[in-house]
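Attaching the record inline, Q. Sequence:
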Amino acid sequence: MGVPIKVLKLKPEAQLPRYAHVGAYGDLAADLYAAETIVIEPGATVAVSTGVALEFPPTHGALVEDRSGLAMRGVTTLAGVIDPGYRGEVRVVVTNLGEVAISVKPGDRIAQLRIVQRIEADFEEVMELGVAARGAKGFGSTGV
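Structure, as predicted:
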């Protein structure tokens, strides 16, 4: 049985998030659907309505992530953290990095919703960090 997440439809055209493939080798994330018609112009950043609000248990939240098909067309998601205490509409912030406008209509898959377990860390200030093989090498340190 999965994590129970309550979904409130805020618009009649809204669709509940759902997995395209379930079972032992199912999807890692559920699809999120647009609940509005919008054109995302090249270079524009917009918040796309999903028409749903979610209620997570206090132990879980979610990350909103790209769909590979849209990412290949230059549409990428931003600001994709949904905390367990948030009860407002899920809006998907996207930027069109491509050279052509992208049209979105109600029912289009706009992003993916990955459910994550909430882990609260205790941050401790120290005078130095332990030694590791990677050390202070930054992004791209593997040569890729």
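The first helix runs from residue 68 to 72. The helical segments are 68-72.

More tomorrow.
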